[in-house]
Structures are given as C-alpha cells and as structure tokens.
Amino acid sequence: MVDWRPPVPLNGHIFSYGRTGSGKSWKLMAIVQFYFEQGYKIWDIYGGKRREGSFWCFPSEEAKLWFDYKQMVGAMKENGPKEYNVNLHFPFLKTHLPENKQIPEKLPRIKAKVFTIYWKSLTINHIAVMSGAVTPNQKALWMKLKTELSDFTGSADLLDWFERSINTGKKSSPLYKSFILPLCSEGLLQGKTCKYNINLIEEAKEKGSIFVLNEDYTPADIQMFLISYISSTLYEYVNDEYIHNKNLLFFREMNLFMKVQDESSQDSDQRQVLRNQISNVARYGRSGLFIAGDTQSPAEVKGLVEGQDDLLCLNELPGVRDREEACDRIKSDGRMSKAQVAYLGVLPIHEMIIVERGKSAKLIKRVQPPRTMGWKREVGSFQKTWKHKYNSYTDISQIIDDINAEDYKKEIVDNYIKPITAEDLKKDIQFDKEMEGEDDTDDEKIRLLKNQYQELKNQEIEI
After folding, report:
1. pLDDT value at residue 285
2. Residue 312 forms beta bridges with which residues?
3. Structural domains in the chain (count)
4. Between 259 and 115, the higher pLDDT residue
C-alpha cells in the first residue's frame, strides 16, 4: 500500500517504535509535516540526544529518496523538499549563550526568539522537575515568595530576598539551591512586565510557523524544566480554551525521559515528575493537545502511553520482546496477523506498518520522505550545518542589556520591600522554626532580626 493518508482530525496521539537506524524519526517527521499542512500547530520541544529540532530550518536534500518515492507513487502536486517558517526559541541563560552574542537567524523565514519566563506563572510541579519531590515546607516558602514579592520582581530581586539577614536561613532549602539559584543566576525568571517573557498564547496563533525549542545552549536539567513548563502550560491553555484545539507536541527519543526504569538514580526523582506530567498530557490532553513521539523500544515506556494512540507507527523491531510489547494487544484484538508481527523483525527502512485506532494494521511499502533535513553523522550538528548553509546570525547584545536592565529594575518602595513590622518578625521566626523543625527559639536569630528591624526603621530605602 502506498496511497495511505494519516487520519484527520486526530483524536489521539502518534507513537513510533523502532530500533536505532530503522528510520522511525524521519518517518514520524513526515507524518508531523502532514498534520502541519492540515492546520495543526507544531511544537517541537525535544530533539533527542542529537538536538534535531532545529533541522526544520533546512529543506531536504535526499534526491534519491524523493526519486524513488515518485517512481512508486507517480507525479506529485508540489515539490517534495520545503522551506518552512520556523521560530527558533532560545532560553535566556546568560552564562550559556554564545560569547560572541550571535545566534542563528535568517529573516523573514527563520526568526530567533530569546525568551524569559514570568516566575509567578510557575507551579510546584515545574519546580519539582529540577528539585525533585517538593515538601510541604518548600511549598510554603514558594507561596511566601509569591505573596511577599510583587509581580514586577525579577531574578536579581529574587536572589536579593534571600540575602536579607531575615531570610538567609532559607538558602538551605532545596527550592533555593536546586531551582531559584540556578535559574535566577542565569536571569531566566523575570517579572510580569518583561517584554521577553514567552507568550505561548500568541505563539499558538502562528500556525504557519514551526515552534522549535533550540537546545544548543541549554543544560539537561534546565531542558527538562522547559519541556515541563511548555507542555503543561499548553495543556492548561487548551483545556481553558485560551488557544485552539489543533496542537501537536513533537518529541524524539521519548525514552530518554519516559523510561520506566532509569539507568541512573542521580536524577530519577526529577525524571519521574516529568514522566508523570507527560503521561497526564497523553491520558487527558486529547481534546486539543496531541503528542507525536518516538522511542526505540515499547518496553521502555510500557503502561505510560499504551492505548492512548490514534496512530501507531511500527518500524524494524528485531527483538522478540519488543515485538510482543508493541503488538500483543493489537494481535489479540484480531487487527494484526502473526506474519505482520514477524515481518517487523526484518522490515526495510523505507517501509512501515501503520495501526490506526480501531482498524487493522497496514503495511506501507514506501513512506514519503520528510520535506526537511534530518541529522546524519556526515552532516553533523545543527550549528555546523547552519554555518555551512546559511552563516546568518543576529546580534543579541541589546536583548542581553534589556534583560539585565529589567532584572535590576527596582519597584516602588511599597511594592518592593515593605517596612518590616514586629508582626512580620514574629511570622518569620515561626516560619523558620517550621522549616527547620526546631523546638526551641534561636536567640541569636532573634537578635539578628531585631537588629535588622531597628536598622530599617532608622533608614530610608533608596530606589
């Protein structure tokens, strides 16, 4: 069969299984590009180990693949390779952005967007992706920050809050050490009025442009946090009808964070939090936010995505266990034959077995190639390919200056640091006792707090 078309509209997710080298990612990319043409907004937020998301910028150069495809299906209505409009999103991480302050951009088709995040829009679940499980005391501290500090507080002001002698004891909290300190030191968290705050509602309106989260300058832990923030925020926006209901989240190598048993326990708690969030999207986000993801083995994500798919894409699976995990449920429903299951062990790279919801499995003899480039060893990274093909960059010096200025902008006295009263001191002492689990009052702490209170009473705060 060569004339198959994916189901429209989507009523579930798209998952693709196959060993390394089976072509699972480029075949899934071709399907994602089909849905783009059907008016779906594409959110490419995880490019896998090879950071392939930004390759949307380059049209396909696979002349032989396209020739072979045309030989089998006949004349095409339009040329295969395509130049897509792409919005490359770069998180503002001041110590990781290029030293020369130049990032890829090729207007008008490819736009570079450096972004920050309004810190009060973050939830405990977002924090847990970096800090691990959040205790009740940490939740109380987060609510204290959101209550005491105004909407205009930026990264520098958040850090300054912990430097006040009345608050220094709270710097031992995992909330501070694992979340606030690393993100605020980079300047990523900003106040409500920062013009570089990411606006996913406005981005959703740009259906004609691919949203790509560029990962070239992002550490792995912050990358997981950004995946959590974008996916869960889109989930809420769809449910609350702030954005349309044709959204497709694109992940490559989902096993890297969806694996049931992690290879290392170093960040297992954080990965478990992210896994739960993505699983919730898979289970409850089908009303307008869909997932397209691939992984090598269905055994790695067993139970997390099973039964949530509208479209299952099966590529070469040499392992018997992998074939069983992927096909037993479908085979028991009478929708897949033993011969089809066995054929997965030797499936050629240009073929794929498709299983639509409620329908029998189909063998696609020639899958359409993706219209853009994919990663290849001989091609190299996105940055290397960009320099070779376009060598076009935009200077972000002004953006860095703007965000730094925003970061250190003080607010009016009443909103920035309100005068400390005796009642405030009493509440802070009690809060610190609860945080540290103390039974006795710390006399030295009270002495320091009283000294600071007296100092603040005797001075004016300069803006």
Report:
1. 65
2. 15, 355
3. 2
4. 115
pLDDT digits (tens, 9 = 90+) for 312-355: 999 999 999 899 988 998 999 999 999 999 999 999 999 999 99
- HSE, CB side, 13 Å, CA atoms: give it for residue 209: 21
* Residue 428 and residue 317 share a domain: no
Q: Contact at 8 Å (CB) between 129 and 273? A: yes
- Residues 262, 343: one domain? yes
**Rounded mean pLDDT of the chain?**
86
Angstrom distances, CA of residue 130 to CA of 84, 114, 227: 33, 21, 11
pLDDT in tens, 408-435: 654 433 344 444 555 655 566 566 565 5
Q: Are 198 and 117 in contact (CB under 8 A)?
A: yes
Residues 167, 424: Cα–Cα separation, whole Å: 12
Give the range among 38-47, 77-86, 176-185, 202-211 with minimum mean pLDDT.
77-86
Q: What is the pLDDT of residue 461?
A: 41
In a 10 Å sphere around its CB, with 0-12 CB exposed, 13-18 middle and 19+ buried, how is residue 64 labelled? exposed
Compute the distance between CA of residue 420 and CA of residue 165 in angstroms, rounded to an integer: 12
Q: Which residues contact 211 (CB under 8 A, 6 or more apart)?
A: 41, 42, 43, 44, 45, 87, 89, 203
Classify residue 407: in a domain, yes or no.
no
User: For residues 349 and 22, is the Cβ–Cβ distance under 8 A?
Assistant: yes
Other Cβ atoms closer than 10 A to 391? 9
Minimal CA–CA distance to 103: which of 87, 118, 116?
87
Cβ-contact 88, 104 below 8 angstroms: yes
β 393-395/362-364 pair status: unpaired
Block residue for tokens 């009060």 = 120
147: left (phi over 0), alpha (psi -120 to 50) or beta: alpha
User: In this structure, are 111 and 220 located in the same domain?
Assistant: yes
The answer to whether residue 134 sits within a structural domain is yes
Cβ-contact 154, 194 below 8 angstroms: yes
Q: Specify whether 448 is located in the same domain as 332.
A: no
- Quick: pLDDT tens for 368-384: 999 999 888 888 999 99
Q: Look at phi and psi of residue 7 and say left if phi exceeds 0, alpha if psi is from -120 to 50, else beta.
A: beta
| 289-295 vs 247-251, strand pairing mode | parallel
Beta strands 289-295 and 13-17, pairing class? parallel
Mean pLDDT of 246-253: 95
The rounded distance, in Å, linking the Cα atoms of 118 and 139 is 18
Question: E-strand spans in 35-109?
Answer: 41-46, 85-91, 102-104
